[in-house]
Specification:
The protein has 107 residues and is mainly α. It has helices at residues 10-20, 26-33, 41-52, 56-66, 70-78, 90-106.
């Protein structure tokens, strides 16, 4: 079984921003999006938004490392159970990670 890989659109990023961050921070955060110039750009931005949990300073820190460590950024957001892999079978890990990410992404 393969790991779930989300598809993230510009609309998704905007929805997540509006849902999880204070309105007065939106313009500042949007201005930081242009600094992400790597493959999987929108997926990385969504991961940073999730990992920061609504905290603008934490978001900036996440974003500052994302260009060099984008896989780690995505992994932290989408696959947090991998670090505890010995507790679960591979299928359970993939299922739980997909559930966890989609629960956050779609709420």
């Amino acid at each position: 079984m393969s790991q779930y890989t989300p598809t993230v659109t510009e609309e998704d990023v905007e929805r997540l921003l509006k849902r999880d961050y204070l309105r007065e921070t939106h313009d500042e955060i949007r201005s930081l999006f242009i600094s992400v110039t790597i493959r999987e750009r929108l997926r990385v931005i969504a991961a940073c938004l999730k990992n920061a949990g609504g905290d603008v300073e934490h978001f900036k820190a996440q974003l500052s490392t994302a260009n060099g460590y984008w896989r780690e950024t995505i992994s932290e957001a989408e696959y947090p159970r991998v670090k505890r892999a010995s507790q679960y079978t591979e299928t359970e890990i993939h299922d739980k990670q997909r559930e966890q990410y989609l629960s956050w992404f779609e709420r």
